[in-house]
Design a protein that fits this description.
The chain is an alpha+beta fold. The chain has a domain of 96 residues: Thiol Ester Dehydrase, Chain A. Helix content is 26%, strand content 34%. Strand 4 and strand 5 form a beta hairpin. It is elongated, with a radius of gyration of 16 Å.
Amino acid sequence: MDLVRNPDVGSLVVGRAVAVPRLLTQEDFYRFARLSGDDNPIHVDPDFCAGTRWGRTLAHGMLLYSLIIQTIRTELLPGAIELEQDLMFPGPTFADEVVIVHAEVVKVDRARNEVEVRARVTRPDGGIGCEGRTLVRTHV
């Protein structure tokens, strides 16, 4: 795969941020379940979910994180390579909602070519479905 290379880490500044909207559909949940093997009814069975406290299907946590790393690698720091991640999933994220994927540079280590990014996925009501930090290397 040919990656777009990011400019030298020296040009990065703390505070650089992006916010990208993304519609999550039930079909996205089905495709992620097929790919990951995680076919828990809470993600893929609307009838089952109708009887739960949420009333509808919930996004897979790793689907939410995949939106974050995609946003970091394509919008915030093109070509960045993920080194580590810390995640929390404070609330549910539902099918057929437009979420916003936020990513912001919070620390730049020029000596190591590493960037710490704070990221979150927010729901239309402002609630957070996924949040955390990701450490990336900006080029190899």
